[in-house]
Amino acid sequence: MININGIGFGDGPGLFGLISALFPFIFIAILAFIAFTLVRSILQWNHNNKQPVLTVEARVATKRTKVSHHHSASDESMHSHSTDTSYFVTFEVESGDRIEFRISGSEYGQLVEGDMGKLNFQGTRYLGFARHRVVSYP
């Protein structure tokens, strides 16, 4: 005689029984992670709002990108691929300290390592960079 509960069907001791028993814990863990991320973002936003807006002399020290690949498949005939690129620039201020900010792709393309100018930021929030113009004579 075959016991179908023994191979994981239903609420028995098998795989599906284990999954149905763990589902509430997994659901709560996912909700806790989302809540933690949301609270952390709000606290960072609030911290930045309390910081003074600073404008300092800085040099573009380095630039980097981070490409994230996303893949989803709804069924065997439908596959979706997408990528997301994040742009980061590290600035070096007069004291020698370095600060990295995530910036937009359009601003990233306009900056060159070694550019000098005025960095404008508030806490960890990048507000802009005004490059010094170099005047060349013929």
Main sheet: strand order: 3-2-1-4-5
How far apart are the first and last residues' alpha carbons, in Å? 97 Å
Count of helical segments? Answer: 2
In the predicted model, the low-confidence regions spanning at least 5 consecutive residues are 1-10
Structural class: alpha+beta
Q: Rg to the nearest angstrom?
A: 25 Å
Number of strands: 5
Order of helices and strands: HEEEHEE
Q: Helical percent range? A: 25-40%
Strand content: 35-45%
Q: Whole-number average pLDDT?
A: 86
Dominant shape: elongated
Major beta sheet, specifics?
Answer: 5 strands, antiparallel
Topology:
Layout: H1 15-50, E1 53-75, E2 78-93, E3 98-103, H2 105-110, E4 116-122, E5 125-131
Antiparallel strand pairs: 1-2, 1-4, 2-3, 4-5
Question: Short summary of the structure?
Answer:
The chain has helices at 15-50, 105-110, and strands at 53-75, 78-93, 98-103, 116-122, 125-131.
Question: What report would you give on this structure?
Answer:
The chain is of the alpha+beta class and 138 residues long. The protein is 30% helix and 43% strand. A hairpin with a 2-residue loop joins strand 1 (53-75) and strand 2 (78-93). It is elongated, with a radius of gyration of 25 Å. It starts with 14 loop residues before the first helix and ends in a 7-residue tail after the last strand.
